[in-house]
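Data card: per-record layout.
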Amino acid sequence: MSVLERNNVIEAGAGSRSMIFAHGFGCDQNMWRYVEPAFRDRYRTVLFDHVGAGRSELSAYQPDKYSDLDGYASDVVEIGRALAFEDAIFVGHSVSSMIGALASIMEPGMFGKLVMVGPSPRYIDDGEYVGGFSASQIEELLASLADNHLGWSASMAPAIMANPDRPELGEELTNSFCRTDPDIARHFARTTFTSDNRADLKKVKADTLILQTRDDIIASEEVGEFVHREIKGSRIVYLDASGHCPNLSAPATVIAAMNEFL
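The structure for this 262-residue chain is written out next.
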């Protein structure tokens, strides 16, 4: 099976420069449906599902490979090689922001620009670093997910999405979480929430934009500012949006910020 089949890669657009969109934990490429079409007139757009998500080939999931984010980053590089990426644009949401950063380090020249939507290099507090969660809180979160995947999804998704005045957004994220294979979801959650890629930020050479929202319980403004400080020459834009998924809740705002950066 080719990497394009394995990762359910879908191409669109007509531009000579490529722009690839990567989804976050518990989601799939459908989460970009309000953003990606806005760039088809200028770029070759590429959507895909991480192995274990969406319509990817579930049988290709290897727990050892995906026990850290490098496994996912290597898939991105493999897709980039298959599609002959050069100076491409990587747009990553949540944990995929760091996956894109790692891919750009692995394969210099493949990505000229990174757009990070709600990035976090480490979710666990460590000394003066405030990731937003204590180690015990993360273990409780992971234990709750393991004990009751559907219940965890129903309670966590609306809080992650925020925007309580638009409950349909929380419902969509809940349904997305619930569609994920429970075993893979548990494994990906542990990989995501126990990762520590702070030291990798200084290695990023690509021109980087950080998109930060208000009231993001997963990646706070303090975390976004840390990423901004650590990636030399990066830009941070504070969106007029709340919650962790502005690609769904405020797509026009995301598109405008991206257009200004590009």
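Known properties of this structure: The beta strands are 10-13, 17-22, 43-47, 88-93, 111-117, 207-214, 235-242. The chain has one domain: 3-122+197-261.

See the next section for split statistics.
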